[in-house]
């Protein structure tokens, strides 16, 4: 697709949180967020990889590899990469707590100790409530 060899390495990296991928200027490796596949599909994963490869190849050719450059936009259009990675959906909260004093509801991925945490707004105690 790029008519250039890819001579470095590309990894899935779970530490990427909100970005789809990242090209590293120092050692030329690419990190890809596995959620780009797990939350979407292979076509989306491919578009994200192609986006990072546009940075990669332009950088190695000594061209302007920044998002705003016309080189970047042109290469992205030629190769069918995506300009923006799609937003990763929030994982659904497993637990709901309600403050027994002010009534605010907080959603959490994990249980927390009701003796240790108090409401940020009013200092009240929380109670686990059914969803
Ligand atoms: Zn980019
Ligand atoms: Zn409260």
Automatic annotation (TrEMBL):
Gene3D superfamilies: Metalloproteases ('zincins'), catalytic domain. It comes from the Bacteria. One of its GO terms (biological process) is response to stress. InterPro entries: SprT-like_domain. Residues 1-129 form the SprT-like domain. NCBIfam families: PRK04351.1. This is SprT-like domain-containing protein. It comes from Limosilactobacillus gastricus DSM 16045.
């Amino acid at each position: 697709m790029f008519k250039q060899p890819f001579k470095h390495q590309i990894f899935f990296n779970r530490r990427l949180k909100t970005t789809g991928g990242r090209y590293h200027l120092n050692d030329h490796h690419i990190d890809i967020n596995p959620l780009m596949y797990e939350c979407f599909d292979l076509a989306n994963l491919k578009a994200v990889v192609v986006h990072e490869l546009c940075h990669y190849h332009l950088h190695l050719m000594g061209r302007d590899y920044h998002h705003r450059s016309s080189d970047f936009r042109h290469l992205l259009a030629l190769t069918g990469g995506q300009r923006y990675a799609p937003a990763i959906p929030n994982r659904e909260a497993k637990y709901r707590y309600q403050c027994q004093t002010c009534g605010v509801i907080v959603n959490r991925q994990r249980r927390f100790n009701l003796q240790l945490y108090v409401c940020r707004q009013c200092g009240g105690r929380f109670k686990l409530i059914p969803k």
